[in-house]
Amino acid sequence: MAAPQIGESLRIFVTEIRKTKFRKDEELDELRVFINPKIIETSSKQSKDWEGCGSVAESGLFAKVARPESISVEAINESGEKFSLKAKSLLARVIQHEMDHLDGVLFIDKADLATAMSRNEYLKFKEQALKKF
Ligand SMILES: [Zn+2]
Predict the structure, then answer these.
(1) pLDDT band of 59, cuts 50, 70, 90
(2) Into how many domains does the chain fold?
């Protein structure tokens, strides 16, 4: 969730990757605060995976977006301390998605619209993927 999503023109976002039945334990991540974040490095390797967004919730749209697989980011935390973080896979994706919000970019601007589906279709799709294992 990024500040511009709640009408605040600040370069701040928070991330937290909570447990769902679709997520692996190693993907989960604590609550983090990013103030004035800067992505200082991105991998040349890209990955393409599903995204949805609280700001596109009305249509409940999910679609695949290609992004660098891993990144390094620098920011200030809630205690005013500068930190840097290397992130990969889901956390890297979430951080890049939130960074885009600070620049007024929504994931649908970058998504492969051929993969777009509604929330219900997406949940069905994920349920089926679970059954395969
Ligand atoms: Zn979003």
Answers:
(1) low
(2) 1
Catalytic, 16? Answer no
Cα distances from 73 to residues 31, 77, 89, 110, 130, in angstroms, run 16, 12, 14, 20, 32
With a CB cutoff of 8 Å and minimum separation 6, the contacts of 103 are none
For residue 105, how far is its CA from the centre of ligand 1 (angstroms)?
Answer: 9
The band of 70, judged by pLDDT with boundaries at 50, 70 and 90, is very high
Q: Residue 72 falls within a domain, yes or no?
A: yes
Distance, in Å, from the CA atom of 53 to the CA atom of 119, rounded to the nearest integer, reads 11
Q: Is 85 exposed, middle or buried (0-12, 13-18, 19+ CB in 10 A)?
A: middle
Task: Give me the CATH number covering residue 84.
Answer: 3.90.45.10
Q: How far is the CA of 14 from the centre of ligand 1 (A)?
A: 11
Q: Is residue 133 part of a domain?
A: no
- Is the CB of residue 12 less than 8 Å from the CB of residue 2? yes
DSSP state of 117: E
